[in-house]
Design brief:
Alpha-Beta Plaits, alpha+beta, 662 residues, 15 strands, 4-stranded antiparallel β-sheet, 58% helix
């Protein structure tokens, strides 16, 4: 359980065989090709035509998947409103569904799907375009209706109101608040108003010689001229527009259903997308190699334990190659490839949310796994809830049988459920019912003894932070900075023990406080020495004082562990409150059967809510304790995860060789 050692592969081959070599490395599944940039008189050649072809294909495939996604909700609404319409939806791979698998042969044959897939994508593209055209036309019709609505009271065709030889006509809108100002037209023109909410529609007729005066008055009223192409009677035109909208809506519903019925092609689209994603990665790898007129140089990272197997494959292949592997140089930073067992591996996702470990760093994942497991159960703190989580996630994992690296969140919650069962039994809580009422032995109940829960939370917090300091000391020793590591770590150990002895030791013996304060002083001195190591002049003093100031930060971090106390207590209290509400309701209803039914509904809703919200809280706050309080003591991060050729697949995964052989 550690960050795997990496080896550098350097390989020279014939340019004509480069594609074959990269394909072989792809199948090996353990090679990350890197940019070869330390050679003179070489080129990095890119097949622009092939790159463009692959990019265009990926764009088409992504358009197809996105189009299905865009219309999925709309199709569901249409089907809900039209009970006779049905289609068998192609479900996407989600959280509760493992990725389907492929063999190498099936992946290589993916191009045979291309003709059928592209034909379907063209069909949905045409449907999508027609739907958009209809929606655009619908928008125009709605805009026309909005323009005509104020004139519904006009019982003549709009085009009848036009200029003649002796008169001028206006048709438009003003703000309803300025309607009174139309009185200025009384001696100049004849007008009629049509009220419609905040807008007042106005028709005006005046003699030609009065036109300029009328225009001036209308301009002062923020006049907006009627601009619709509809020239008939407004009410009739509105009816026509509404009828057209109904027809367009019907057409669109039919086309949306026809479009989503094509989603049976989605598995093939996804398979082809993975195939071309790998082709794109291969093209990028070709560009990373350094080429001359006839040969190329390839550099790559390989896990050291895979070197022997890879070497054998390369030696047995019929390509013209020369290669060797070596240890990383001091100026090289290999990617981080973390290897952990099935228990620890899911917690790598938690660590990677913060930052991947650097290559030469101690792997934090085993420690994260332990503390995350412990804290999760303390935060959820109810054995009944733990049993529910364990059963539900266990069933999901048993049904989907996810391959390695998938469904890590579910696995974390599964293990968190086990931890919750243990801590729930310790705290004596079963679906909000105290073990005391059930006659079951337990240590203490957080509701009855909250101070004990608080001290326990701070205790595990001190333990985790001290553990982190210990890891930091080991890392410094590996860097041949042992004295600094001793001072930086044991200073805190001495201060914590000394503070505890000085403050509380009087209850044990009279001499304990004295020894405690001496230890505290020794720890403080070591802390200042640690801050001064490696510095010169006045910086020694500032470094020492800076470390002393860090005491405030240490105890600030310690207070963060009260979130364990808060969440553990909240879970217990909420569960107990829902139980009490259910019992009160049951007591208020005279008919016992009905009362029991209502109580069961309250119990179910309340406990489902409680387990859901506090499971989320346990995950989030647990992660926060790892990232800030724990990692802050030893973890650097900033590494780059190992991404071998073949890891670009998003929707499928390749069966391991041993499974394929079986």
């Amino acid at each position: 359980m550690a960050i795997a050692r990496m080896s550098k592969l350097l390989l020279v081959g014939n340019n004509k065989e480069r594609k074959q070599l990269i394909k072989k490395l792809h199948k090996a599944g353990c090679v990350e090709i890197v940019f070869a940039d330390k050679y003179q008189n070489v080129e990095h050649i890119e097949d622009v035509k092939e790159v463009d072809s692959v990019s265009q294909m990926l764009a088409k495939l992504e358009f197809g998947m996105q189009t299905f996604k865009d219309y999925k909700t709309e199709a569901a609404r249409i089907i809900k409103n039209n009970k006779g319409v049905e289609y068998k939806e192609c479900k996407p791979d989600g959280l509760l569904k493992a990725k389907p698998s492929l063999t190498w042969e099936e992946l290589d044959e993916s191009r045979t799907l291309e003709e059928e897939v592209l034909q379907k994508i063209d069909e949905i593209g045409e449907l999508n375009q027609q739907i958009y055209q209809n929606k655009s036309q619908r928008t125009k019709l709605v805009s026309t209706i909005d323009q005509l609505k104020p004139f519904v009271g006009l019982d003549m065709a709009v085009d009848k109101l036009r200029d003649t030889k002796t008169t001028s006509a206006w048709l438009g809108y003003i703000n309803a608040s300025k309607k009174e100002s139309l009185k200025d037209l009384d001696e100049l023109a004849v007008y009629q108003t049509f009220d419609s909410g905040s807008t007042t529609a106005v028709g005006v007729v005046a003699l030609k010689e009065k036109a300029d005066e009328v225009n001036n008055i209308l301009s002062s009223l923020d006049w907006v001229a009627y601009s619709s192409t509809c020239k008939g009677v407004p009410s009739q035109e509105i009816d026509k527009c509404q009828q057209e909208i109904k027809e367009l809506d019907k057409q669109n519903e039919e086309m949306v259903i026809e479009l989503v019925r094509h989603d049976t092609i989605l598995p093939q689209i996804r398979q082809l997308h993975d195939y071309y994603s790998l082709e794109k990665a291969k093209n990028e790898c070709e560009y990373k190699t350094a080429s001359t007129a006839s040969s190329y140089v390839l550099e790559a990272w390989v896990p050291s334990d895979k070197v022997e197997e890879l070497t054998k494959e390369l030696e047995e292949c019929d390509l013209n190659l020369a290669f060797f592997t070596r240890e990383p140089k001091e100026d090289e930073i290999p990617p981080s490839y973390v290897e952990n067992n099935a228990v620890v591996a899911p917690y790598q996702d938690v660590t990677n949310m913060f930052s991947a470990p650097s290559y030469n760093e101690i792997d934090p994942n085993p420690f994260v796994a332990f503390f995350f497991f412990v804290f999760f159960g303390m935060m959820l703190s109810d054995a009944g809830y733990g049993l529910v989580l364990t059963l539900l996630t266990g069933i999901v994992l048993a049904v989907i049988k996810p391959p390695k690296g998938q469904s890590n969140l579910i696995k974390i919650i599964f293990m968190g459920g086990i931890s919750t069962i243990i801590w729930g039994a310790v705290f004596g809580s079963y679906f909000g019912v105290s073990a005391k009422d059930l006659g079951i032995p337990y240590w203490f109940n957080p509701i009855d003894d909250p101070m004990m829960m608080l001290f326990l939370s701070l205790g595990v917090g001190i333990f985790q932070m001290c553990f982190g300091l210990g890891i930091n000391m080991v890392a410094l020793i590996k860097q041949k900075r042992g004295f600094e590591g001793f001072c930086a770590t044991f200073s805190w150990y001495f201060m914590i023990l000394g503070l505890a002895g000085g403050a509380l030791g009087g209850k044990l013996a009279a001499w304990v406080p004295t020894v405690g304060w001496i230890l505290f002083g020794v720890g403080l001195a070591l802390l200042m020495i640690a801050g001064a190591i490696g510095k010169k002049g006045f910086k020694k003093v500032s470094g020492a004082l800076s470390n002393v100031y860090g005491i405030i930060n240490f105890f600030s971090d310690l207070m963060s562990y009260t979130r364990i106390f808060g969440l553990g207590l909240a879970t217990a209290v909420i569960g107990m409150v829902f139980n009490q509400i259910g019992m009160v309701i049951m007591g208020l209803i005279p008919v016992k059967a009905i009362g029991a039914l209502f109580a069961m509904i309250i119990f179910l809703i309340g406990h489902v809510f409680n387990v859901g919200i506090n499971t989320l809280g346990a995950y989030v706050h647990n992660s926060r304790l790892q990232f800030v309080e724990f990692f802050g003591k030893f973890y650097t991060g900033g590494g780059r995860l190992f991404r071998p050729l073949g890891s670009e697949m998003k929707y499928y995964y390749i069966k391991p060789k041993e499974v394929e052989k079986q």
